[in-house]
Amino acid sequence: MPTSNSNHQSRHRRVYAALFSALSLLLLAGASMAHAAGAGGLNMTSHPIGYLAVAIFVLAYAFVMLEEKLHMRKSKPVLLAAGIIWFLVAGLAAANGDSESANEALGHNLLEYSELLLFLLVAMTYINAMEERQLFDALRAWLVNKGFSYAGLFWITGILAFLISPVADNLTTALLMCAVVMKVGENSPRFIGMACINIVVAANAGGAFSPFGDITTLMVWQKGVVDFTEFFALFVPSLVNFLVPAAIMHFFIPNEPPEKATEKVIMKRGARRTVVLFLLTITTAVLGHNFLHLPAVVGMMMGLGYLQVFGYYLRISFERNVAKERAWAAKEQNERLLARLDNAIPFDIFSPIARAEWDTLLFFYGVVLCVGGLGYIGYLSEVSTLLYTNWNQTAANVAVGVLSAIVDNIPVMFAVLSMEPEMSHGQWLLVTLTAGVGGSMLSIGSAAGVALMGQARGYYTMMTHLRWTPVIVLGYGASILTHLWLNAELF
Questions:
Q1: Across the chain, how many H-helices and E-strands are there?
Q2: What transmembrane ranges does the database entry give (predicted)?
Q3: 149 near 190, Cβ under 8 Å?
Q4: d(C-alpha 36, C-alpha 306), whole Å
Q5: What confidence tens digit (pLDDT) does each residue in 306-323 have?
Q6: Same domain, residue pair 240 and 204
Q7: Do 262 and 318 belong to one domain?
């Protein structure tokens, strides 16, 4: 087991990484300001209010990156920063006799956020409902009871993370697979650390080729720059991103067999049907968006109706079903099932909704409005010119992926979408890929990595991940080259 001193050092390294992230944002903003100043003329980018808005955003994001050290949820500083930035922007606009344009810009940002908020809320509700029905617990128990070797578990958890994350989000997928390796590999810290790295890479790679796999891909789909089926062009590059580091790490997995473990889980009534309803909800959203040109959120909210009606059926038939199961359990002398039935409660749709990741949803609101405010001031157009006109577009999109390993990929991708640079379809897919998988290079680069540092505390740390960063970077480069070669006709 790691010592408290190593934990202390790990925390310091995460603090240094956070400060480096804030510095990176400051340098990027500074570059755009310098470009604006060189262009000449009076504009908001060279106004003191513009500088102050950038400083507020950088300061807020520094607090976000120091979340684990300060124990302050990441939504708090960005919510405050968003309000201050828009009050400054609106005040400056009003002072120049133009309050309407600021209101219109803010309204556009709020509309974009509301669509994504409701979409994510439905997806999170379904995932929480599956968890409440103990579907994920049953999957974990099945894996634990199979008695796989460490090498087998390394590949099985990685492949499952890659395959589940396109449907569920990569954070939930990573937490589920981490629970498996923590249970089976508790006597091998080295295996847990390596398996967690593999899970983070696999979950991020799997989420990159599906609109449902990550918030960034969802934003790209909602924006309309990439259609639903076109994301699957990234399947092979994403697979390469996962397989290259996994294949190298395979040779360093401990050889000793894990201790046998047993775990029994009985899924609650309706677990499998909840999965079917979730797939039906996704189908509804995709068909409505692709063929009727409705916002995808309309189909998702309709899918929430599916779950509510099903929840009503579970509730009205609850007592009859419990009585039936209790009689069967008494006949079979199943004490465990009887104990569970004694504590059974009806399905409540609002319980999964309440357990949604509200901190993430509110953080997303703050990011959208902060970036929107900086975009209204004019910084995004300057950064767009700096990256996508002065640089080669491929190099710029590769750099976006590297930046997403340091800074959260949500504000990075939202900024790119707000810039709306003129790019080929292949380039839009490239930036979708790099923003999705680039966060795997550092443990703090994705929500999956940050979550696993907490779940596998002491086993999976920033330095544990950093030791394998070179092979992850190799996979990152291989996935980009695969996309450039395989989808060359799209460029």
A1: 24, 0
A2: 46-66, 78-95, 110-127, 148-168, 231-253, 274-292, 298-316, 361-379, 399-417, 429-454, 466-486
A3: no
A4: 51
A5: 999 998 988 888 777 767
A6: yes
A7: yes
* Maximum C-alpha span of the chain: 85
Enclosing domain of residue 266: 117-354
Cβ atoms of residues 479 and 241 within 8 Å: yes
17 and 91 in a single domain? The answer is: yes
Instruction: Give residue for tokens 């810290």.
Output: 189
* Side-chain-side CA neighbours of residue 363 (13 Å): 20
CA distance 362 to 339: 39
Contacts of 424 (CB under 8 A, 6+ apart): 490, 491
Half-sphere exposure of 355 (CA within 13 A, CB side): 14
Residue where one domain finishes, among candidates 354, 377, 405:
354
Q: Are residues 59 and 167 in the same domain?
A: no
381 and 486 part of one domain: yes
CA distance 481 to 473: 12
Specify the residue for token string 């929500």.
447
Instruction: Give CA–CA dist 447/174, Å, rounded.
Output: 9
* C-beta separation of 220 from 226 below 8 A: yes
Residues 448 and 168: beta-carbon distance below 8 Å: no
What sign results for the dihedral spanned by CA atoms 219, 482, 157, 404? negative
Query: Is residue 183 domain-shared with residue 135, that is, in the same domain?
Result: yes
**CA-based nearest residue to 476, from 208, 190, 212, 228:** 208
At 238-268, the pLDDT tens digits run 999 999 999 999 999 987 777 766 777 778 8
Tell me the backbone φ, ψ of residue 264, rounded to 5 degrees: -115, 130
Instruction: Compute the distance between CA of residue 71 and CA of residue 66 in angstroms, rounded to an integer.
Output: 8
State CA 443 to chain mean position distance: 13
DSSP H helices, 133-166, are 135-145, 150-164
Q: Is 24 exposed, middle or buried (0-12, 13-18, 19+ CB in 10 A)?
A: middle
1 to 153, 186, 190, 456: CA distances (angstroms): 21, 10, 10, 12
Q: What is the mean pLDDT of the chain?
A: 81
Q: How many domains does the chain have?
A: 2
Cα-Cα end-to-end distance for the chain: 50
Calculate ∠ Cα 349-355-359, nearest 5°: 140
208/404 Cα distance (integer angstroms): 13
> What DSSP designation does 267 have?
P
Dihedral angle sign, alpha carbons of residues 305, 298, 172, 198: positive
d(CA 45, CA 52): 10
